[in-house]
Amino acid sequence: MRYANRIALVTGAGKGIGRATALRLGAGSAAVAVNDINQAAAEEVVSEICSSGGKAMAVPADMSKHNEIVSMIDAVKSKFGDIDILVNNAGGSCSALGKFVPFLEQNDQQLDWEIAVNLKSAIISIQEVIPAMIEKKYGRIVNLSSITGVVGMPRIPVYAATKGAIVSLTKSLAMMYGEYGITINAVAPGAVATRPGMEKLGEATFLKRACSADEIAGLICYLCSDEAAYITGQNHLIDGGRTLGTKPEDGEK
Question: What is the pTM of this model?
Answer without folding.
Answer: 0.94
